[in-house]
Amino acid sequence: MRRGAATILHVFSSGDIGGVEVRTRRLIDLLGEHYRHAALTLQDADATAALRRLMDGIEWLNAPPRARTGPTVLRLLHRLHRLRFDLIATYGWGAMDMTIAAALQRRTPCVHHEDEWTDAQWARPPRRRRWARRLVLPRLAAVVVPSRMLESHARNAWRVPANKVHYIPNGVAALPVPRAAGLELRRQLGLEGDDRAALVVARLVPQKTICRAIAAVALTPYHLIIAGEGPERSRLAQETRMLGVEDRVHFLGWASEMQAVFAAGDVYLSTSSTEQHSLALLEAMAAGMPVVSTETGEERSTLPLPQHEFLVPTDASAEYVAQRLIRLVEDHSLAQAMGAANLEEIVTRFSPTIMAAQYSSLFDTSIHQLNRRRL
Fold first, then answer.
1. Are residues 160 and 205 in the same domain?
2. I need a labelling partner for 2 at 20 to 30 A (CA). Which of 119, 162, 168, 240 fits?
3. pLDDT for the residue 257
4. Structural domains of the chain, count
């Protein structure tokens, strides 16, 4: 790494891979040699293997032994004093111990990211988390959110000053769709030429409500491809057996070649009960896929107007989701038009270079402001 590059420590909530982790890896690549990076997660090493693979080529630090918040924060303060990074980037509630340590240290600027906020937390947030955010987040250099909803919440509920809340929507590249690789994946899954498949890309966790996607597809003759991993996998597999669709639901786990996965599906399906600015949704749009999605966060402002017909309420029944799915799959010209409109939206509004430029400006400003205060 070149001399003089600013050093950033990325601290993740867990060893799971989701949109936050994928976005961060891509951002690191886009930022180039202007920065050098290290990463850690406040979990046992055994739980971080997949994340380490994603962050290949980046220095990985071992977390201190996990304890209650007080002892963990003290250990992290000691670690920060020895390592001397130029900036700390923390991600989600699971990284809050490091966020607290950075706020107490006040020598290294900290940019905290909040990406998810469930319906239950909106209505009745856990008191401890609410007060922790109110006490800690206003002391940081910046708080980054990917949605206008979270931007408002950070200002009003967490009382972060407006000049410290930065709305940076996710960005993805519109890459050529590898049709041959998609056909090969379909063949490996046992799909024949006329078979149609919906695609879900998500962490397998309760708030993604993937059981509703399975139930909806069970009401159709289609297949369902699920790309993702998480603690819900065994329960979801049991759900497919109960519905008698285990031969039409395919669990891929985490796939390294996601472009082939998007090329294998006919319609992107999201039945999540909570999203803010879904990276998977953007990737599906960038692949020119039509979309059926629950409306939980930024979907209406992200998708082009013709797609709004295929947004469904978060409490929509499996029958209603199936109806929307059938409408898109069976009308090939409509599906093509939706996919083309989605791709155009990515090209014009959600470029990864725009996202990287916003982050680079924020990181540089945070580092230089602290340096000026030291003089």
1. no
2. 168
3. 81
4. 2
